[in-house]
Every structure is written in C-alpha cells, then in structure tokens.
Amino acid sequence: MLVRAKLFATLARHLPGTHPGAVIEADLPEGATVADLLAKLGVPLSEARMFFVNGRVRPVDWALQPNDEVGVFPPIGGG
Amino acid sequence: MWILRLNMADRSYRLEDVPAAYKNLGGRGMTSTLVADEVNPQCHPLGPNNKLVFAPGIVTGTSAPSSARVSAGAKSPLTGGIKESNAGTPWAHDLASLHIKALVVEGQAEAGNRWLAHLTWDVHAARPKVEFFPADEYAGQSLYEAFPKLYERFGRKVSIAAHGVAGEYGYANAGIAYNDLNGRPSRYSGRGGLGSVMARRGLKFVVLDPQGAPGPEFADKALFEQGALKLANGLRQHDITKPKGALNSYGTAVLINILNEAGGLPTRNFTSGRFEGAARIAGESIFEGVKNRLGREVYNHACSPGCIIQCSNTWYKADGSEHTSCVEYESDWALGADCGIDSLDDIAEMVRLCNAYGLDTIETGTTLAVAMAAGVIPFGDGKAAINLIHEMGKGTPLGRLLGGGTEMAGKAYGLTHVPTVKGQSMPAYEPRAVKGIGITYATTTMGADHTAGYTIAPEILGVSGKVDPLTPEGKAALSRAFQATTAFIDSSGHCLFIAFAILDIPSAFEGMVEECNGLLGTSWTADDVAKIGAEILKKERAFNEAAGIGKERDRVPEFMKIEPLPPHNQVFDVPDAALDSVFAEM
Q: Is the ipTM of this complex over 0.90?
C-alpha cells in the first residue's frame, strides 16, 4: 500500500536532498505500522517523538491504512 | 533585599525592608501578592490608584541557569483583572543585582509629564538610590531610536525598561519593552496593556546600573549550587533544550508545523486549524532562510544572561543586514497564519514595528485578523497589515481603535467571531483542536494565555506523557496541575521553557527546588511546588472576583461551541462544570 510521510525539523536530515515537511511516498505491506514506515525511511525510532496520522496523535505501533498521511516530529518545544 | 517604591506624584522614593510575609516571594508570587494587597480591584487600570509592580524571580541575579526573568504586575487595562506578564532580559538580572525584590510604581505625575528613573548602587550607603530626570524629549519616538540615546547618555552597561508610543496613547495593547543582550528593545512583558499602566504613572523609562552592587546573598550556597548544577545538567541533556536542539536551532517557531499537522494552528481569525502557508513561515524555514541569506548556519542566541536554552532568533533582509529579532512562534503565528500571511519578510517587519511602537505582537496580530474578517483589509495582504500597524503607531482614529485590542475591534465592527477570554485574545493554539489549552485559556486569571498552563506539552509535544489533544476527558485536572506548577516557575525566576526538561527529568525538577531553598533557607520539597503555585492563583482569583470577574467569565466565546473547526470538525465541548472545577477543586 502507498502512504505519504512528512519528516519535520531535524528528522529531514535523514533524507538528503529533501526538506522538512516534504511529502515522501512509501510503499509498505498491508498492516504496516508507523514504526515500519520509519524503518523503511531509515529514521531511527529514538529520534522520533510525535506521530500524527491524518492529523491525529497516534502511537508508533499504529497500523496504517492505504493513502494515510503520516507526520513525524523529533522532540520539539516552544511557546 | 528591599522593596523600592517610586512615587511618581512627587518623584520621591522609599526603600522598605521586605516584610516577613513577603520574604519567600519572587516574580509572579510577589507581583500578584502586592497587587492583591495594595490595589483596589475596583480601580480604573489607568487611574491614580493602580500600581505597577516589577519583581525579579527568587533566583534571578544568581548563576541559576535560564533565570533572568522579571514579572510585571498590575490591574490590566485589557482584561480588567490582575495581570502578571514576565520577560527574559538583562534588566531582570540587574534589578535583582540592585537587591530589589520588588519595584512598586505608584502615584501619577502631572498629566503629560514623562520621567526617567535612574537606579544605581550607592556604595557608601550600601543600598540602591534613585534619580529622576525629565523624559519628555523621548515622547513619540521609536524605541529603536530611544534606546541607543539612553545607552549614549548612561553607558552601554545599563539596562532599560520602557513603554513606547502605544503606552503614551493608553492602548490596552501596550507592552513594556526591555533590552536584550545586544541592546535591542525586543524583550517584552507584552500582554495585558501594562505599558499603558506605566505610561499613566508618568514613568517613561527605568534605567538600571548595578555597577558596584554586591552579589546575591545565599542562605545555603552549597545547596543552591547543587540545585543549579542539577537543573543545568537537565537542560543540557533534554532534546528540546540542549545546545543545537530544537529550540536552539529553529527557535520557538519550530511549533508552526506541528500545530498545523495537529489541525490546531489558528488560521484566518480562527476559522481553520490548518494554514496552507505554514511551512513557509515555520522555524525550519527561518533557519534555512537565514542560512541562504548569510551563507552560513546561524544558531539562536540568549535573550538574557545565563541562559542555556538560547532560543532567540534573528531574521535578516535579502542583502544580509539585520531585519529584526526575534520572530517568536507566537508573533510568527499571530502576524502570519492568523492573518493568512505567509511572507517571513512581512512578518519580520511587523515584529519590528511592534517593538518600535511598544505593542504586544500577539494582541496586534489577532486584532489585525479581526480587522481582516471585518473587511478593513484582505486576509493575506502583508503590506496592508504593515500599514495598519503604522496607523496604531501614529495614533490615528483607526489606529486607536485597533490599539484597544481584539475585543474592541470586534465590537467596533459588530463581529461575533472574536477569539478572546476576559478581553484578552487567544494565542497560537486552537481550543477546538487542543482541548486542554482551551481550559487554560478559559480559566486562567490572566485572560486567554497559553503560558498560564501549557497543556500543549503532553497534548502535542509528548512532554510529561502523551494525551489525545481532541478529547476533553481529564483535561481540567491537567490544566489545574499545569497552572499551579507554572505559577511557581513564574515565581522562581526561571524561564517557563525549563518545564520541558524538569517535567521529564526528576533530578532537574529537584534542582529547581534546591536552588530556591539554597537562596531562601526554606525547606520546600517537590510536592510543595504545586501547593505554593495554587496559593498564588487563589490570590489572583480573589482579586478578579472582587473586580467583577467571576467563574461565569471562565468561558470561551460562543462561536467555538457552535462552529466546527476544520480539519477535525470539532467544537469546544468541555462542559462548564469541568471549567468550574479547575478552581473549585484547587
């Protein structure tokens, strides 16, 4: 199945030639999770803190559906 | 340590010993206690009976990391309730260095007269002294013009607190400006109109020169140093606050993308939770934009001495010259997404103008957005928005209307879609998409204020646990806990951003408490933090109730309860009983 991933802030450094928030298409087997997506993209789980699937906060073991859009953030803060 | 009172009616001053009941107070705890004890809640905020109080935090002026904060407090012309607005600035450090635990500005100078108070250390008498100078010559000037003149006159080592023309006009949206480490007038007690309270006392500037003052006094220096080290280690270790971490690299505007992703970035006067231009104004784009214009990576700088986090950015023009510092998340959002503007150059210009005129960037942006909703100018028109800020700076009739703030603009144009609580505009998180922060907006004594109880940490950032931002369940207790802990941090003198580290790292939390104990000689524990904070909140609440602001004002505007917000199509569905429980169960 195809899903769309967006890596923000420092995570984009794992995909040279791209920029933070760029949409990246990934082909994953049915039932793949957010963690599987990160493994496919070569993003270490230890660097990722927050996962949004279609704008909703989800855990890393969330099972993805075809055409899901996944936003991944490292630890960030501000105010 | 002293309480220093400036009487602006006759330009006299008085040093008082700190009463026993005030000995352990600092920052917000001190300003709110003094305002509650001495200001009639029924007084007019701009009239003779209001007082403006400045207080450095408990550990401000020491080597405690990220602790150069000052609280300013008074009855607010914007909300009509008690106000505490704090800032990180060298001025805070210098106020504490002069052994001043509270600076109380009372009385009023003759109408139209402006004065400068110059505070120095009298080595022979071993106490601070004050001289007053006429300051009429600075009236009407940009603060970018006035600050360099003051440095020329008093020396580059002084620090400055000021109000701009916004305060001179008496705008409910006038902040108090302080210098940053480079002498820019860019650090603000922005919210609540305190610049106008300062202006109506007839006090234009407070210039501090702590040369010759002795260092801080400790009850137990070893304990203080142990605590400061634990906290510093926590800040250096936590991914958010460490050097070259998220805040140091991308600044607070790193939040633009994550709030947009969560559908909680208020856009075009709170009509959507997503802005199609978000990526163009995000912290990552600021970092890249600066890199492109200067040809090198620039990490952020400290707003005040002794800060480990260092989150203040600088934006540069296309020719490489400095445009402004700094483009904070809140300013970037208010003047950007909330107005439908996606040009960092336009946003930077508006930030610069707010600093020049002495306006709160948040209230300014949300007011412009309301003006756009009313059709005064189109959404997305950065140049027209810049012109409206100039109208405020010139004091034209339209400018005065907008200077009165978001609620006033909404009333003037007959809008129902006005995002305020207790007269203060909401900042950069949508209550319909992030329910806990909506509870904080509704119930804090400050009017809509994210810093009062930053539930965004667990709701969006995964700090101190993770909770679903869209559910209202359990959020009243969450907001209450954050509000109480925050009132303590705001009293300690630390920047609120230490919360990211201390909420995740228990030894860093202990360090903050040990610092306070080492300075004051108290024996507080981590469990006391929320209790001490809650006591401060109760004083503020009692003041507001006496001013006519009770629990029926702890509500978000009606439109948020009936208009679903895209993309999640949620309304603010927190029951009134849950809102009331925040203080009822404190």
A: yes
